[in-house]
Design a protein that fits this description.
It is built from twelve helices and 15 strands. By secondary structure, it is an alpha+beta fold.
Length: 345
């Protein structure tokens, strides 16, 4: 889950610092210089930096973060960091997609160490163009990138409205969700549709994500309510892996690694664009504990970084009365394998 971080709270700033130091230590090793400002940050300097922070959380753990400044439709990325324990999970990509889709922008700017090959590859594959290179000292030079997002007001308005449903679409979706909710009360005993609907109507972006889950064949339904966070949790309940999300590899890195016969998309990229997250193995097993699904198909699940670092990815299915967890090359894709998502509202 991605959410804004209030950096004025000292505990939050401490969490960012605990994430930032090991992340930039990896960059320092890559570029051959430890004389970089992020490694000299303190809680106080973070709290006074004037940047807006967003974090990617796995349960309560902060795994990655992005900080930005926005002025006159230009967004400047100041930090894009992922803890080394969570590399190769597509977290940086999800954070970038998150900020790119939530602001009215014409230009996105970023700078990184000129020898930081992984970062340069990341920005280039996301449409950035190299603008200039600046020598900071004998050991360090920075490369500056820009990405032109939109060119006129009409395009900005189109981009801003792209992820909103019309009133007619909202009404149709709510009717579908209500019918499914009331037909399957065993999935959410003790919960009331009226309260779920009130939450959905107050969060139009979540409605859009649910519509994407529905449109791609996921048949989303409420699975639980998090009292502490006051959030309803939706899973894809389709009998088989959603038809509109099959024949995809695991993530963008795997997609780029294929030399030929590339699939059209990856599971992580699709989920990010939809505003949802892949189910974890634990969540997948919990879903199967309520209803048996994927009897003929299989679904990608979130993959730990140590497995992903070796080129693998995990998927699950249900056969012979049991849930099975498998591994495969992350770049593989099959007509019978998609992914299931979760969404918090």
């Amino acid at each position: 889950m991605i959410k804004r971080i209030d950096i004025s709270m000292r505990k939050n700033a401490e969490d960012i610092l605990d994430l930032q130091i090991p992340s930039y230590q990896v960059e320092a090793e890559i570029i051959g210089s430890y004389d970089i400002p992020p490694l000299k940050d303190t809680v106080d300097t973070l709290q006074s930096c004037g940047e807006t922070f967003f974090g990617y959380y796995d349960n309560e753990a902060l795994c990655g973060a992005i900080s930005i400044k926005v002025e006159d439709e230009t967004l400047d990325i100041h930090r894009l960091i992922v803890h080394p324990n969570h590399f190769r999970r597509g977290i940086a990509q999800m954070l970038f997609h998150f900020i790119e889709s939530r602001f009215e922008l014409k230009t996105i700017k970023v700078a990184t160490g000129s020898n930081n090959t992984p970062a340069i590859h990341f920005y280039k594959k996301n449409g950035f163009q190299k603008m200039k290179e600046v020598r900071v000292n004998k050991q360090l030079s920075l490369t500056f990138f820009e990405k032109k997002v939109v060119t006129n007001k009409e395009e900005i308005n189109m981009a801003n409205n792209k992820k909103e449903l019309s009133l007619e679409q909202q009404e149709e979706l709510l009717q579908t969700l209500q019918a499914r909710f009331e037909k399957n009360m065993n999935r959410h005993e003790g919960l009331e549709w009226a309260k779920v609907q009130a939450k959905l109507e107050a969060n139009s972006d979540k409605l859009w994500s649910l519509n994407e889950m529905e449109r791609t064949g996921g048949e989303p339904d409420v699975v639980d309510y998090d009292k502490e966070k006051d959030e309803y949790i939706f899973y894809d309940y389709s009998a088989e892996s959603p038809k509109g999300r099959r024949s995809v590899c695991y993530d963008r890195e795997a997609l780029e690694a294929r030399k030929k016969h590339k699939p059209e998309n990856s599971a992580i990229d699709m989920a990010t664009d939809m505003g949802i997250e892949l189910l974890t193995e634990e969540q997948y097993r919990a879903l199967q504990g309520m209803e048996s699904v994927d009897l003929k198909t299989s679904s990608w699940v979130q993959t730990p970084s140590d497995i992903r670092e070796h080129g693998g990815a995990l998927f699950c299915d249900y056969r012979y009365g049991h849930v099975f967890l498998y591994h495969n090359g992350a770049s593989s894709y099959y007509a019978a394998r998609g992914f299931r998502g979760s969404l918090r509202v």
